[in-house]
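Subject: for your reference before the review

Hello V.,

The reviewers asked for a structural picture of the protein, and I figured it would be easier to keep everything in one thread rather than splitting it across files. Below is the amino acid sequence we used in the manuscript, unchanged from the supplementary table.
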Amino acid sequence: QAQLVESGGGLVQRGGSLKLTCTASGFAFDRFAMSWFRQVPGKSRELVATMDSTGRSTNYLNAVKGRFTISRRNAENVVYLQMSSLDFEDTATYYCNAARPENGDWTNYWGSGTQVTVSA
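And here is what came back from the structure prediction:
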């Protein structure tokens, strides 16, 4: 059974840093693109950062470019999101996602999320 578990969220002061970790199990991690999404109440979930299965290609939301870095360790089935220079607008629930095209469709797995709150 596929499972994604996020950790590392919490309360941080504006300008501070946090590192989120997503630990995967139950599926072929090294065959999936891994992404971090975030969502605030009343808004749709938005893609923050994504990395392909090999780790060679990344893409970021414009608002986090230069501040957030996604990385992965396929041997350990983990993906990270290093966040720095955090601002109030970064406050959200952050979700880990694994995605892979299969048989003309997409297979997606989601974690349950970890809360990040940026304070003054």
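For the response letter, the relevant points are probably these. The chain has no helices and eleven strands. The longest strand covers residues 92-102.

Happy to draft the paragraph if you're swamped.

O.
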